[in-house]
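Sample entry (184 residues):
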Amino acid sequence: LATGQRVSDIVMLEGKLRVGRVAAGFVESHDGFRTTSPPAGLPTIGIRAVGAAPDASGQLVVCGAPDGLYRCQASGECKRELDAPCTSVYWFADDTILAGDDSGGVWRFDGAFWSRSRVGRAAITDIDGVPDGGPRHVRTAAGVELVSHDLGASWIPGEWPAGRLGSGGMLARIKTDGALEVTD
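Predicted structure, serialized as tokens:
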């Protein structure tokens, strides 16, 4: 930062939003940390993953290492929602939140409460899916790939999507010749 502070645990969200940790808390930036929000909440934890509210309200869910998952308001106020350490998180447009933990579990928030499904033995490293109600995907550190067709309530073996999943199940990918391909 221009102030000389070191930014640690930087996580990039959709678009240009980046979240990182400084001594006084976490900061957000849309321009590569040339400018940042004032430090807010969570001053002592590492940041493993961050998910942003899809409604652009400024709310975040933050996987803090090693002590759990926090929900943070745009004001910077943060509250721990899960004591379990999480390794990945995604906040979907249908308001479902999925968080993977380091022992192969996927936590699901459905708007009312959190529930956990054990899907493997290794940490959940990646979460993706159709943002507005379609299939959800997780991948473990051991390379196991799973899919859910019920917003993360149950999981079966399935392949990781070949590109970026979009609204209504559209899939966008870059072909080997550099062209963009969009399929339904």
